[in-house]
Write a structure and sequence with these properties.
The protein has 111 residues and is mainly β. 0% of the residues lie in helices and 39% in strands. The protein has one domain (8-109): Rieske Iron-sulfur Protein (3-layer Sandwich), CATH 2.102.10. It has strands at 8-15, 25-27, 34-39, 42-47, 61-63, 66-68, 75-77, 97-100, 103-109.
Amino acid sequence: MERLMTAEEWVPVLDEKVLDENLGECVAPKGYPVLLMKRYGQIFALSNQCPHMGCTLGGGMMDGYILTCPCHDWQFDIRTGRMAGVENDIVLRSYEWRIDSGKISIKIKGD
């Protein structure tokens, strides 16, 4: 059986100047829920769904690089996507991003 190549596409989602240092922005390139965040001048793009029960992380509280889910207090390090404070394999999906002409684009890989 032949396997199909996975298509990749850069999808523009937000003007860079709109992304505030202290607030996340929820975007949905090609229907994928993505949370864009800027902390200490760095940009991060992660899944906007908590793996626990699918809650939106966009309303979560930040403490340093730690994002707390607003539903059940699960915590994630936005630099790695890993669940904070425990050794396990629970990880938020991270997305590649780039800036073109002042616009943030997210790389989406199709199936």
